[in-house]
Design goal:
Structural class of chain B: mainly alpha
Distance between the termini of chain A: 20 Å
Largest interface: A-C, 67 and 65 residues
Helix content of chain A: over 70%
Distance between the termini of chain B: 15 Å
Structural class of chain A: mainly alpha
Number of strands of chain A: 0
Strand content of chain B: under 5%
Largest sheet of chain B: none
Number of helices of chain B: 11
Radius of gyration of chain A: 24 Å
Oligomer: heterotrimer
CATH class of the largest domain in chain A: Mainly Alpha
CATH architecture of the largest domain in chain A: Orthogonal Bundle
Order of helices and strands of chain B: HHHHHHHHHHH
Order of helices and strands of chain A: HHHHHHHHHHHHHH
Chain lengths: 315, 293, 547
């Protein structure tokens, strides 16, 4: 097992190198350069060229790539934003915790509401409760999140005046963004859990456990749920990565200065260091989340753990 | 059920797999309703020219933001165009986008996932690391980058949404494969010298496909909403083409004064995605080989 | 199981309910912010809150970015302009010295000498001398953010309080001097070099307000400068008053959130509210007792410019005329809502002093009545030999321009001219596509100037390093010659301005579409009079208040 973990960590580094290369290349090919955004519309082509020259974005591909890889992976310097004029790492230091908190709370809510909901539905499959809750869940998935966000602001801020409509001053500011982010997740979680539980509940080992006289409660929570949760955990791992990416639109609607808008503005402003830095940080989080998820698989399911230890290939 | 004549033992007619699936599907109320409403939405989009006398691009300044009325049941948008008509025509874009991107992404993703999950070892490692790299770049970001680089427009938007969805399908399928591959029935097939392709697609796939089906149906909905999101930030399909997402975007500035402009496109998206999900759920139930009524 | 579930849900509901009950004006890190809920009495308030677009940094060198309104309260320039098209007056320059109220200039030479006040101090206590002015200008020039500074040769300190500007030629065109003297903030070299972020996230200026806090992405808080250097109150211009203790700028990018902010009382001033959202704040509206709407016409004119290069169908003047006759300005105004926009009849509007209302009575594609247009379109389409080529319309990815482009497109279609899908793209892609003559035929955009219409035309048609203008007009074209004549102060006569107008109309280089009406919604219980900069931005410190 230790060897497997070590292997995965080494692969992590390779993955990050590849991500860095990939995002650099993609941004290189996006049309337009920083000067287009930072200088006024009246600037001449010559002025723009000189401005870009100072930033170093006129250099050939290899030169820029070399400079970027060296700075990022050896000096750990993510550069300074062309637009914000603040080092990317410093700004991320402020923004990542915000988005992370938002994402984590949302996921925790997803898990604590979604999973029990899914289990309940599966237990009462095809009864009215199941249908009702599933339809509600699906309604949750179907609503565009920005629409929900705007509706919530209208209701809770304007009509009822309970919550502040934007900004990040106090903890009340966080309530609506968290709800807006988690509604979809709860619904997805509930459906996946229900689906997974339904699969497992008819498995042989469950029948065996019941036949052995194990109390129903234990059947569900000790035997069935861990197996059913595998696809759910997989999905939560992916959701964590996505949550860190932040939802740009929710952040825009709530004037929430998180990583999502930072990256979006970076793309629009051709602010290469920002986009590269954000993507690398997100990739790192994502990859670590995936690694943890895979390790949890191994922990829960001994068959998978055996595969990890056996090197994986079957014969 | 065939009747049994007194004294005779008639063999029970074997139901074909497809028939059984169809029967299960149609007897499930949520799935049936979802399918019916979805079919209506699709038909309305396809036959839009016959169902409405307006053109989606007919601007009329006397009708700017007109409230819903008999002549214009869903009201009019910022340039006086009939919302109902635009929603109908818009369905073509949104539905085509959603289905194409999700299905192509799923097919590619499942295939890769089956191979990776079944082969294991180095193949699995490499494929999963490539997927790691791929999915490290958030789907929306990837879509935004592709749209920005290659320009907006219908084809590029489909490409952008497809690319973002592949890692999900791969990972989900491969996870299920990891569970299944040690199962006895596969050992049996291997013992019979079944070709790998046959094992993968005839025997392994039906057993691992259920979460993928649920995943794919939800991703159709997700793709439609992703396309709406792209249009919301100004990429995706260009004006004056009607597309539900860009209609949502146009309505966001008048949400306090004319809420119906954002309400109806939002409802359309929600209804479509809801129906797809309801149907997908029913399909999952119907396809589960272990599910017995 | 069920019990657990219901307990969980009810727990969450209770949690969210306890969140309410506190006052709604808790947003943003602030200090001493008196309650600014909409229904609060106006007597004892010391803070005014304005919503702006998000500022990406607080750097005074790039003053054209959004959200930088606060710069005009914290920093000062050598001279300032008394509102749009107003006179130049000395701020850091001592108007009592020099022949021209702050500066000396010998006609025929490219040298200008500016005299500073001798007691200028910034908020950190550093004395501002001529060397600081030199440093500020050189830093500005090196940053590349200054536009049109290609005539500046050098800035030198003659002595501690005298600065000499040497240009490459005498600045005889209108507005050229103020482009240097009223477009560069002056700051202390010592403070700049001591700042770790080089003023990107902190600010030290000489103005009537001091930066108290800046939260990136969220907002800026200013407080009154207790040691403002200008102690001679008669010398302080209206625009540099400090009539309120604290000013807060909150960053809001979403239009709907702006409106919500006004309705909940979290925001006192919003400078650009869409016309369709102001009914609640006007007389008879739900919030009319607390808010008022001040409307003024934007200097920006929306227009459609033609690509005259050989790569476009618009190379042929008949095609251009056909296009512009097909677009009906009256119709455009109707579509964009007569309460939101006004008609224009040129590539500029009546805000400018050198606009000639006689242009509205001429007979051309700007003024022709709607019913007579179809015949003209047909005439020119035939002359151009149009055979179905699709016109490519390019615009910025903003709702206003997207709507304009769609209206233009529909009008062209109605006249029988085919159009491709509108390309509505982000700023950077827009600039890239604009520079490529094969990518577009019609550019729907907006141009402005802050003083004269000839400068607006200069912005549109100025020649780039390719030897051609942004719309690919050759630099030797007569338009450029006429324009340069009209821009010289000595020959800046109505006659010459008219000549430029007549020429570009005859060549159908572009067509003015409409002019937006800007709605400023402000808390009338607190503010009695609004004061603007020459760029039509509000100066909250300079407004008059009820307390």
């Amino acid at each position: 097992m230790k060897k497997y973990v070590l292997q995965r960590c080494l692969w992590l580094i390779v993955v990050l190198l590849c991500v860095g290369f990939l995002i650099f290349t993609v941004m290189y090919f996006v049309p337009g350069k920083p000067a287009d955004v930072l200088l006024t519309a009246e600037a001449t082509a010559q002025e723009k060229y000189e401005f870009n020259q100072k930033l170093g974005v006129n250099d050939p591909y290899i030169v820029q790539l070399g400079r970027y890889m060296y700075n990022t992976f050896i000096k750990f310097d993510f550069g300074t934003s062309y637009v914000y004029r603040v080092p990317v790492l410093q700004e991320l230091n402020n923004r990542v915790p915000r988005t992370l908190t938002l994402g984590t709370i949302a996921i925790v809510i997803n898990a604590f509401i979604g999973i029990p909901l899914g289990v309940a539905c599966a237990m009462h499959q095809n009864k009215p409760l199941d249908h009702l809750l599933m339809i509600l869940a699906m309604a949750g998935i179907s609503m565009p999140d920005f629409w929900l966000a705007l509706m919530m602001i209208l209701l809770f801020s304007v009509k009822l005046k309970w919550l502040p409509p934007f900004g990040i001053g106090s903890w009340q500011n966080w309530i609506m963004p968290v709800i807006a982010c988690s509604v979809q997740g709860v619904a997805v979680n509930a459906r996946q859990t229900r689906s997974a539980v339904l699969e497992t509940i008819r498995a042989d080992f469950v029948t065996t456990a019941r036949a052995k006289g194990v109390p129903e409660h234990d059947v569900i929570y000790k035997h069935m749920l861990p197996n059913a949760l595998i696809p759910v955990i997989n999905m939560l791992g992916g959701a964590f990565g996505r949550a860190i990416a932040g939802t740009v639109v929710i952040e825009t609607v709530f004037s929430f200065p998180g990583v999502g808008v930072y990256m979006m503005n970076g793309i629009n402003g051709r602010d290469y260091p920002v986009v590269r830095g954000c993507v690398l940080v997100l990739a790192a989080f994502s990859a670590v989340a995936v690694l943890i998820v895979d390790l949890i698989y191994g922990f829960i399911d001994p068959r998978i753990k055996a595969q990890y230890e056996g090197g994986g290939a079957h014969k | 059920m065939t009747e049994m004549a007194a004294g005779a033992v008639k063999p029970r007619k074997k139901e074909s797999y497809t028939r059984m699936v169809m029967k299960r599907l149609l007897t499930n109320p949520t799935a049936a309703i979802g399918l019916v409403i979805l079919a209506i939405i699709i038909l309305v989009s396809v036959f839009a020219p016959f169902l409405t006398k307006y053109s989606p691009n007919d601007i009329d300044y006397t009708l700017v933001y007109a409230a819903p009325s008999a002549a214009h049941p869903f009201g009019c948008d910022a340039l006086g165009r009939d919302m109902l008509t635009r929603l109908m025509y818009g369905g073509r874009y949104s539905l085509t986008l959603g289905f194409t991107a999700a299905l192509v992404g799923a097919v590619i993703g499942v295939s890769i996932g089956l191979v990776a999950g079944y082969a294991g070892g180095m193949t699995d490692m490499i494929v999963m690391r490539i997927m790691d790299v791929w999915s490290s770049i958030p789907g929306m970001l990837l879509a935004i980058l592709i749209s920005t680089t290659m320009g907006a427009g219908f084809g590029n938007t489909i490409l952008a949404m497809t690319v973002g969805g592949i890692p999900g399908g791969v990972r989900g399928t491969r996870a299920m494969c990891l569970k299944e591959r040690e199962m006895e029935y596969l050992e049996a097939e291997r013992a019979q010298n079944c070709s790998t392709v046959r094992i993968l697609f005839k025997h392994l796939m039906p057993n691992v496909i259920s979460p993928t089906i649920v995943g794919t149906t939800m991703s159709i909905g997700g793709t439609i909403m992703g396309a709406a999101g792209l249009a919301y930030i100004g990429l995706g399909i260009q004006p004056p083409n009607p597309e539900w997402g860009s209609m949502l975007s146009e309505g966001r500035s008048v949400i306090t004064t004319h809420p119906y402009v954002i309400l109806f496109p939002g409802l359309c998206i929600a209804a479509t995605v809801l129906c797809i999900n309801m149907f997908g759920d029913g399909l999952r139930d119907a396809l589960d080989p272990r599910l017995k009524k | 199981m069920k019990k657990l579930l219901s307990a969980l849900i009810s727990g969450l509901m209770v949690l969210s309910l306890t969140a309410c009950g506190s006052s709604s004006s808790t947003a943003a890190a602030a200090s001493g912010a008196a309650s600014s809920t909409g229904s609060a009495t106006a007597q004892s308030f010391d803070t005014i809150i304005e919503a702006t677009k998000t500022a990406s940094n607080i750097d005074p060198l790039n003053m054209n970015q959004s959200g930088k309104n606060f710069l005009w309260e914290v920093y000062e320039m050598l001279f300032d302009l008394d509102g749009f098209g107003g006179d130049m007056y000395g701020v850091l320059a001592d108007s009592s010295k020099g022949e021209y109220k702050g500066y000396d200039h010998e006609a025929g030479t490219p040298e200008y000498t500016v005299y500073l006040y001798q007691n200028i101090k910034d908020s950190a206590g550093n004395a501002i001398t001529a060397s600081d002015v030199v440093f500020s200008y050189n830093t500005m020039k090196d940053s590349g953010y200054a536009h049109g500074w290609n005539t500046l040769a050098s800035v030198d300190a003659v002595d501690d309080y005298t600065v000499k500007f040497t240009f490459t030629r005498e600045l005889t065109k209108v507005g050229e001097l103020s482009a240097y003297w009223a477009r560069c903030f002056v700051f202390s070299q010592k403070a700049y070099e001591a700042s770790a972020s080089k003023f990107a996230s902190d600010a030290v200026g000489t103005g009537p307000y001091v930066l108290k806090s800046y939260t990136a992405g969220s907002g800026i808080t200013l407080e009154k400068n207790p040691n403002y250097w200008q102690t001679d109150t008669t010398a302080i211009h209206t625009q540099h008053q400090a009539n309120i203790e604290n000013i807060q700028y909150k960053f809001i990018d979403e239009d709907a959130t702006n409106v919500v902010g006004l309705q909940t009382g979290d925001v006192d001033i919003v400078e650009e509210v869409a016309t369709k959202s102001i009914t609640d704040f006007q007389d008879g509206g739900a919030y009319a007792d607390t808010y008022d709407v001040y409307q003024h016409a934007n200097n920006l004119t929306d227009m459609a410019l033609a690509n005259v290069s050989s790569d476009s169908v618009c190379n042929d003047i008949n095609m251009r005329l056909a296009l512009f006759y097909a677009i009906d300005p009256v119709g455009v105004v109707n579509y964009m809502d007569t309460n939101s926009v006004k008609s224009v009849y040129a590539l500029g509007n009546a805000n400018f002093p050198d606009y000639d209302s006689g242009w509205e009575k001429e007979d051309n594609y700007e003024t022709l009545s709607s019913d007579a247009r179809a015949a003209k379109v047909k005439e020119y389409l035939d002359k151009a030999g149009y055979n179905g080529q699709k016109i490519k319309i390019l615009c910025l990815n903003e709702e206003h321009y997207k709507n304009l482009s769609q209206v233009v497109g529909s009008m062209l279609n109605a006249a029988g001219i085919q159009t491709a899908d509108v390309q509505a793209v982000d700023n950077s892609t827009y600039q890239t596509l604009l520079a490529d003559s094969t990518d577009w035929d019609l550019d729907v955009c907006g141009w402005a100037a802050n003083d004269f219409i000839v400068n607006c035309w200069d912005h549109i048609f100025s020649v780039g390093s390719t030897g051609k203008t942004g719309t690919f007009i050759d630099q030797n074209d007569q338009l450029i010659t006429l324009l340069n004549t009209a821009r010289e102060t000595a020959t800046h006569t109505q006659e010459n301005v008219d000549a430029v107008h007549e020429y570009y109309i005859s060549q159908a280089y572009g067509m003015g579409l409409c002019q937006s009406i800007v709605n400023v919604v402000y808390n009338s219980k607190k503010i009695t009079k609004l004061v603007f900069t020459d760029k039509s931005m509000i100066l909250p410190g300079a407004c008059t208040y009820t307390n």
